[in-house]
Amino acid sequence: MRTEDVSAGLERGELIKGVLRINPKKYKEAFVPSPDGSADIFLDGIAARNRALNGDVVVVKVLPPEQWKVLYQNFRFLNETASHSLSEGGRLEADSTKERTLCLRQPRVVIIFEQKHSRAASGFLKFLPNKNFAMFSPVDHRIPRVNVPLVDCPADFVSRPGDYENVLFICRITHWPADNNFAEGRLAKTLGQAGEIEPETEGIMTEYDVDFSEFSEEVLNCLPQDLPWSIPAHELSRRRDLRKECVFTIDPATARDLDDALSCKQLSDGNFEVGVHIADVSYFVEEGSVLDQIAGKRATSVYLVQKVIPMLPRLLCEELCSLNPLTDRLTFSVIWKLSPEGKILSEWFGRTVICSCIKMSYDHAQSMIEAPDKHFSAEELPPCSTNHRIHEIKEAILNLHNIAKQLRAQRFESGALQLNQLKLSFSLDKESSMPQGCYVYQYQDSNKLVEEFMLLANMAAAHQIYRTYPELAILRRHPPPQSKMVDDLQEFCDQMGLDIDLNSSRGLHRSLNENLGNDEYAAARREVLTHMCSRAMQMASYFCTGALKDENSFHHYALNVPLYTHFTSPIRRYVDVIVHRLLAWVLGFRKRKQIVKKLHKLASHCNDRKTASKRVQELSSELFFAVFVKECGPLDSEAMVMGVLDQSFDVLVLRYGVQKRIYCNSLEGLKAVHFRKVGKRPEMTLVWEQADPSKESTQQVYYPKQLSVYSITDRNGFYCSILSHPV
User: Which EC number(s) are documented for this chain (predicted)?
Assistant: First the structure.
């Protein structure tokens, strides 16, 4: 289709543009969001995608009603990738057999508007006799199988193909004929043995187009060359000097890129002067430089379980920009005068210089919060500046904690929503980086303290740049959840007897924290419902205000605030660097260079890289968990049922915070499976063989919200099996 025809079709509403999402567990199902955000457009089959891959921006044509296809389908609530969503114009009817019928307009992709997928994949080679090519089968089934020339394969592949059955390769798709289910491509690299951490990790990063190469000499030449570096006198004279103030950092114990620092001192009138001090990365990253270009391309640091792929060279992110203790550092600060209740009485933005007096971990700060009357000795804490007593630091942390509690309560009372899901962390062997243990990360009051002031700083920065540059501000918006998904979730919760209010972010937050009982499994129900509600949410995204005309669309649903941006992590997020530059324009430090079109494109790119980074981080965690289970399993844990399909069901394994799908055909001793719907509630009955033939078979009934005990074992990766009856 010609470009002009696409533009005309989009204007007339005959065509729809959106990001393609392919179901990872049912690769023949794909979805594109409808323009009004009410539901998803369902693409049935690989042909309907017209060779588009997951994440591509596509243009979809919805076919006329005479080409609609009628599907008889048991609606499976909470299926992966929102497969329960209706297509554009879909409707529900009841036929004579009382089965539910879904009438769908059968859409198809007419053009790939923008290729976002890397067209690279990790996978395995299969030898094909009498062919001059081999078959490459990607690990990700959403990517087609690829014919690769034998000349790309290892020299002895033809004579010894069995030697490569468990070897991972990287393949890049070069061509995909319109009339063929198989693509064509070239092998890019041999990774190593499947299941090993480093080959698997490199495969993940390559698939998601993460640049993990070393920084070039040209980039490194943009950094200060005279080391050790010190702040020039003329730069000091332009900044507010806070080096004598009690400023400190609170981060994970292993953190090396320290973006942010805090300060707090009580004033004579009983109020507090509170400061958030952020590394001034924009001082070192000159706009338009080679360093700036590579940072913009990477857009974010990528945090794997065993290492970090930095956005900036380590000299910057771990030394010159990092707010390391007892060292003068350049910062961008926002300083408020706050009442004890957290009311903002005044606000100041500006460039500053600080000298952090101590590098605190979350655990150090937490110990002070939990023992406010304790006298902490120097031996219990990291090295501290002699200019500030430990008691002074402790008092600052306690005052910040008290104000943070007020700010947090006010946020949630005003309608904010927090859907914190369990996060799996690992303890690693120092030499091999192999997982030695895993645990669910504990989110403490010290984490909440830092979070509240980072949120406050981000909101302040958003208002500052939008007030001055209403057409150029880079903000972060979060649309409300799709109405169709909310309606389905509400109906489902009602039929399950769950008192969940989905009418607003405030109602949902209260429901998750007040209405799930107080028995021993209330926390488990909350985790499951949090996961379920998260699936209905849309993703937050960056945008340039000049590209969106409706100010109401700037709103951040989860935070329930009109304006929000990212300002507090410029070492690891490029958007924050841009926000710092915008603030510098506001304060008259720099001249405007950026334009709306460039900023809009940059925001879109940062969205893509943030999404990819998040997925890489998830896959890294899954990989390490699989290796841990293989080495240390089987592991036993209680798990709660999240969703039931006709031949499988999903569980949240509570001890580890991981979701797993249990396929009935993999369960040993299972005699029969019976699936039915009670209203919208799916229900599965498992009938088990008895070891004693004289006894009747045991039956178990499963539906969402139930608790069971599972064993996580290794078999071609890992899977869950049932150990006991549901509770």
Answer: 3.1.13.-
Which pLDDT value is given to residue 697?
61
For 547-571, the pLDDT digits (tens) are 998 999 999 999 999 999 999 999 9
Whole-angstrom distance, CA of residue 67 vs CA of residue 274: 64
Within a 10 A sphere around the Cβ of 378, how many other Cβ atoms? 9
Instruction: Say if residue 260 carries a ligand binding annotation.
Output: yes
CA-wise closest residue to 261 among 194, 214, 211, 328: 328
Q: How far is residue 225's CA from residue 239's CA, in Å, rounded to a whole number? A: 23
Strands 707-713, 719-722: pairing is antiparallel
Number of residues assigned to the chain: 727
Determine which helix (DSSP H) or strand (DSSP E) holds 525, and give its type and residue range: helix 522-536
User: Residue 208: exposed, middle, or buried by beta-carbon count in 10 A (0-12, 13-18, 19+)?
Assistant: buried
* Residue 722 and residue 667 in contact, taking contact as beta carbons nearer than 8 Å: yes
What secondary structure letter does DSSP report for 444?
-
Q: 92 φ, ψ to 5°? A: -100, 140
pLDDT at position 367: 97
Helix axes 574-586, 596-632, angle to 10 degrees: 150
pTM to 2 decimals? Answer: 0.88
List of the chain residues with pLDDT < 70: 37-38, 63-105, 495-496, 515, 588-594, 680, 691-727
Omega within 30 of 0 (cis) for the link into 481? no
3-state class of 378 per DSSP?
Answer: helix
Contact 328, 231 (CB under 8 A): yes
Query: Is the Cβ–Cβ distance between 706 and 524 less than 8 Å?
Result: no
Q: Is 714 annotated as a binding residue?
A: no
For the chain, give the longest Cα–Cα distance.
Answer: 91
Nearest to 248 by CA among 392, 344, 379: 392
Question: Is the previous residue joined to 435 through a cis bond, with omega within 30 degrees of 0?
Answer: no
pLDDT tens track for 116-160: 999 999 999 999 999 999 999 999 999 999 999 999 999 999 999
Give the neighbor-by-neighbor strand order of the sheet with 328-338.
240-241, 344-355, 328-338, 272-279, 260-266, 247-251, 359-361
Contact of 621 with 204, CB cutoff 8 Å: no
DSSP readout, 33-82? E-TTSSSEEEEESSGGGTT--TT-EEEEEPPPGGG-EEEE----TT-GGG
For residue 274, the cross-strand partners are: 264, 336
> In a 3-state reduction of DSSP, which class is residue 192?
strand
Q: H-helix or E-strand containing 29?
A: strand 29-33
Q: How far is CA 394 from CA 103, 265, 370, 374, in A?
A: 64, 11, 11, 10
Strand partners for 171 = 121, 187
Q: How many CB atoms lie within 10 A of CB 153?
A: 20
Residue keyed to tokens 């199988």? 145
Joined tokens for residue 197:
């951490």
Query: CA 16, CA 107: separation in Å to the nearest integer?
Result: 10
CA atoms of 604 and 581, how far apart (whole Å) = 18
The span from the CA of 481 to the CA of 479, in Å, is 6
- Torsion sign across C-alpha atoms 78, 83, 84, 86: positive
Cα separation values, 662 from 40, 451, 652, 667, Å: 26, 36, 11, 8
CA distance 709 to 724: 6
Other CB atoms closer than 10 Å to residue 257's CB: what's the count?
A: 22
